[in-house]
Structures are given as structure tokens and as C-alpha cells.
Amino acid sequence: QVQLVESGGGLVQVGGSLSLSCEASGNTFSDYTMGWFRQSPGSQREFVGYISRSGLTTSYANFVKGRFTISRDNAKNTVYLIMNNLKPEDSAVYYCAAASATAALEETEYDYWGQGTQVTVSS
Question: Which of 44, 62, 79, 122 is the most buried (most CB within 10 A)?
């Protein structure tokens, strides 16, 4: 079992930055690929990006490339999502998730989920 707790959400202006954290507990954190997803009202949850177990490989959805960065600190059991140049359409509940798969781009590949943290980008 893995428990995930996101933090760092909030209200930010267009063009601003925000950093989210997701702290894991339970099973060995470095055994899991970690992903970020988001969901806005009336929409399905969508993939934002993932980072490999070692942290050496990342992959991002096209709509966040160049603006968002995922990193992890296995010693701290924490994965981060750094968001720059935020847009109103980035407003959503952001979730972190853990997958046993080596590379996980699909929601169904993830085994454990956090409760989510709200990000609101105001214009």
C-alpha cells in the first residue's frame, strides 16, 4: 500500500507559478513511477506527466511541455510538480499517483492516488 498526500495548491494569477508536492508513505517510494493528473469540473481526469523510479526519465502532456516540470526526491519520498506560466485552463484539481509500471501514461496504469489539491488560475 502507498498513501499519497498532495499539497501546495492555491490561487495564482495568470502567468504565475506554483509548486505542488506529493509525499508518499507505505511501500518503498523508489519502486514506483510517479504521475500527475488533473481534473477540471465537467471534464475527465487527464494525464499531466510522469517521472520514472530513478527520476532520470520524464514525460509530459503536450499542453504542459516547457511550462511544467516533474521531479522527485526518493530520500524524502516526495514528488514535485513545478508549474510556470500558468493559464486559466490549468485550473483543476491536481492528483499525484503511483504506478508499478515502468512508464505509465494511462490513468488505469496507476495503483494509488492522492486526494488531490486545487489549483485555480485567475485572470
Answer: 79
Q: Which of 98, 113, 99 is nearest to 45 (CA)?
A: 113
Cell triple for 43: 471534464
**Cα separation, 104 vs 33, whole angstroms:** 7
* CA atoms of 122 and 22, how far apart (whole Å): 23
For the segment 23-63, what is each residue's pLDDT rounded down to a tens digit?
999 989 999 999 999 999 999 999 999 999 999 999 999 99
What is the spatial distance between Cα 81 and Cα 36, in angstroms, rounded to a whole number? 8
d(CA 115, CA 37): 11
- What residues have CB less than 8 Å from 33, skipping those under 6 apart? 50, 51, 52, 53, 98, 99, 100, 101, 102, 103, 104
